[in-house]
Amino acid sequence: MTQLSRFGVSLDRTLLAEFDRLIDRKGYATRSEALRDLIRANLVEEEWSDGREAVATVTIVYDHHVRDLTDKLTSVQHDSQHLIVSSLHVHLDRDHCLEVLVLRGKGREIRHVADVLIGTKGVKHGQLVRTTTGTRLR
Fold this sequence. Notes:
Elements: H1 13-26, H2 31-49, E1 53-63, H3 69-79, E2 84-91, E3 96-106, H4 107-119, E4 123-131
Antiparallel strand pairs: 1-3, 1-4, 2-3
GO biological process, one term: response to nickel cation
Binding site for Ni(2+): 78, 89, 91, 97
Cofactor: Ni(2+)
């Protein structure tokens, strides 16, 4: 079982009140849970910056009628197959598709693939969501 350590934090009352409102909006049971998530988020950022193995999702929305767009997106994905763990393709309506890719590898390689996909002409919206393999977080 994990050993817990207690520590005190001094905060401006206004900042603490804002933090408590945030905790309430997000549904945290305690301040401790919220602080743990903030710390973990910063540790994930560190993982991405120091070249460790990382995990991410890339989400794109595009008009599949744009000339050669589907072929370009497929080509990028085939060239990056060593990073792509899984993909999901959804037909949103008659014109638009959504794709979600799960990637695992070095952060800089994942970021490059995301930038290429999101920057492809015809992609209407895209987002990279960076996360962690979880092995270093407690």
